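A reminder from the course coordinator: this example appears on the midterm review sheet, so study it carefully.

Given structure:
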């Protein structure tokens, strides 16, 4: 398992548009991917569950990947978060 902690910088937080982009990116990989915010965790391929975390600006989240392509999966999701100004 690989993971990375990142801080959300989008003023609206993790809202619908960037969440849909993250979910689509996570679905490209075989690895199980999760996002953790505080004590809550959600699968990164379940858009409504990710939105239910209500991640706000300035929040620290942990992105995790576990599986055969875990390193590529983590790098891919982090890259998408950066390119969409989430982190």
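Designed residues:
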């Amino acid at each position: 398992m690989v993971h990375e902690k990142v801080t959300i910088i989008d003023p609206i937080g993790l809202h619908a548009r960037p969440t849909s982009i993250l979910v689509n990116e996570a679905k490209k990989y075989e690895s199980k991917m999760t996002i953790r915010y505080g004590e809550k965790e959600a699968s990164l391929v379940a858009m409504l569950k990710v939105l239910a975390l209500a991640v706000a600006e300035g929040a620290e989240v942990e992105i995790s990947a576990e599986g055969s392509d875990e390193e590529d999966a983590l790098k891919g999701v982090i890259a998408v978060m950066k390119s969409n100004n989430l982190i």
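The chain is about 35% helix and 25% strand. The longest strand covers residues 60-66.
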